[in-house]
Design a protein that fits this description.
By secondary structure, the chain is an all-alpha fold. 73% of the residues lie in helices and 0% in strands. Helix 5 packs parallel to helix 7, helix 13 runs antiparallel to helix 15 and helix 15 runs parallel beside helix 17. The longest helix has 25 residues.
Length: 465
């Protein structure tokens, strides 16, 4: 049986090879002779800080002995969190994810280590070190999968938050796996969790799920808001501070989401009723600056969506006022700009309206949001990119219908490519249908690019002929 090497043996071999005394090496490593001697003789365990000093003094790269450290001081001895915790943080600093996996795998048979690893994961998550945090959350969740604890629910929430990205198939899996854990979260935490779930399902256009979750979020928020003001206790106020938004927002955002569901279903009159509901915020009791900010946002959204729902229901007389409203509220940082102009394109394609002048007027804004990077917020990370894709698709349809084939195919192929990379199967198929409808007008380069993308889609099994 092959014997596992030790850091102590490697250090002893190095000292003999270099002809260094303990005092000389201690001077190089910045450690006193007694500590070096204790490490070499095996009478003393080693901290990660001491290991790093020894590694540097031996002229080896950072983390060179980390796998041996796990073997010598974590697997072969009773686990000690005072030694393991700083080692984990050091592995995070060096981005040694495989080493973290080994450490966690070595100690997670013991359920007693879950709380501490969870705390470390929470610290890493707060610092934005999501890859490392994800490893810990997944292991804690696996260990506690039969515990039905709030900690397990929080782990699943964090896993969901970290995993949501550009791949819509992965997003759907993440949302589906997390949803059953929402009710296990603290009642206050449930509000943000439901908001985030609704935004993901909204980007996936799963309108039944959006409607269900929005109503659930609104009902829970109403209960919490009522309790907060009836009891007016310090405990309620402290709990509310955990939320990412003022509590009333979750009530009004529920109405806004329901309006979006009605819009998707073509029920613009009902969408207007929900819009009028979230526009009326006279019932909100708070008067602080953050509350006033959100009240202003809802009133802004209500104003613009009133134009939108009238426009989409066929009242094209409001188009001029809507465009002037967009122009008056325009700034490059407006993450809603893409949605505002998308509504113009929906109406243009549905009612055959010439909007060339409008597109020219907002060319700068269109170019800007086409290059805009999403933020970490779940709405702007999920919904805004989805709206950008839809805007380009509607642009493609508009230009193709009007015979501007160079622009039409340019936007259509861009959307087709994005749909392929993001696993948006339904959008990919819609693009194919639109291209096939106008393919007789495509130039050679557009046709070649189209065939390449379709072939990739077949390999990825996004669709079948």
């Amino acid at each position: 049986m092959k014997q596992t090497p030790t850091i102590r043996a490697e250090l002893d071999r190095y000292l003999k090879q270099e002809g260094l005394s303990l005092i000389q090496f201690g001077h190089i490593a910045g450690m006193n002779r007694g500590i070096v001697s204790s490490i070499v003789t095996g009478n003393k365990s080693m901290s990660v800080n001491q290991l790093d000093r020894i590694t540097e003094a031996m002229g080896l790269p950072e983390g060179h002995f980390y796998d041996l450290f796990i073997e010598n001081y974590i697997i072969d001895v009773p686990p000690n969190m005072r030694r393991i915790e700083p080692f984990l943080y050091r592995c995070v600093e060096l981005n040694k994810l495989d080493t973290i996996r080994k450490v966690v795998g070595a100690i997670m048979d013991n359920l007693l280590y879950s709380p501490k690893l969870f705390d470390i994961a929470e610290n890493l998550f707060a610092e934005g070190r999501h890859e490392a945090a994800l490893l810990l959350y997944e292991n804690v969740a696996q260990t506690e999968k039969y515990q039905h604890s709030e900690r397990l629910a929080v782990c699943q929430y964090r896993i969901f938050t970290i995993q949501v990205g550009d791949d819509q198939s992965r997003n759907l899996r993440a949302a589906t796996l997390f949803e059953p854990f929402v009710e296990r979260l603290d009642e206050i935490d449930q509000l943000d969790a439901l908001k985030d779930l609704a935004n993901v399902y909204r980007s996936l256009r799963k309108w039944d799920k959006v409607d269900e979750i929005a109503r659930k979020m609104r009902g829970k928020a109403e209960i919490q808001y009522s309790m907060k003001h009836q009891q007016n206790s310090r405990e309620c106020n402290e709990a509310a501070k955990k939320l990412s938004r003022p509590m009333f927002v979750y009530i009004s955002y529920g109405d806004l989401l329901c309006a979006g569901v009605c819009e998707a279903q073509g029920d613009y009159q009902q969408a207007l009723q929900y819009t009028y509901a979230y526009a009326n915020l006279d019932w909100v009791k708070e008067t602080d600056e953050d509350t006033q900010h959100w009240i202003g946002l809802f009133q802004h959204w209500a104003e613009v969506n009133t134009y939108v729902f009238k426009l989409l229901s066929g009242d094209t007389s409001v188009l001029t006022d809507y465009v002037e409203y967009i122009a008056a509220s325009t700034n490059k940082a407006d993450k809603e700009m893409v949605t505002k102009l998308l509504n113009v394109m929906y109406a243009a394609n549905r009612y055959n309206i010439d909007v060339d002048n409008i597109l020219l007027r907002f060319k700068t804004e269109i170019d800007f949001f086409a290059q805009m990077n999403p933020s970490a917020d779940m709405y702007t990370y999920q919904v805004v990119p989805e709206q950008k894709t839809r805007f380009k698709y509607e642009l493609a349809k508009y230009y193709l219908n009007r015979g501007n084939y160079s622009y039409g195919f340019k936007y259509l192929l861009d959307v087709l490519s994005k749909s392929l990379s993001n696993n948006k199967e339904s959008f990919f198929i819609r693009c194919i249908r639109l291209f096939e409808r106008f393919k007789q007008f495509a130039d050679v380069r557009s046709f070649e690019k189209y065939e390449i993308l379709v072939s990739e889609g077949q390999r990825e099994r996004l669709f079948y002929y």
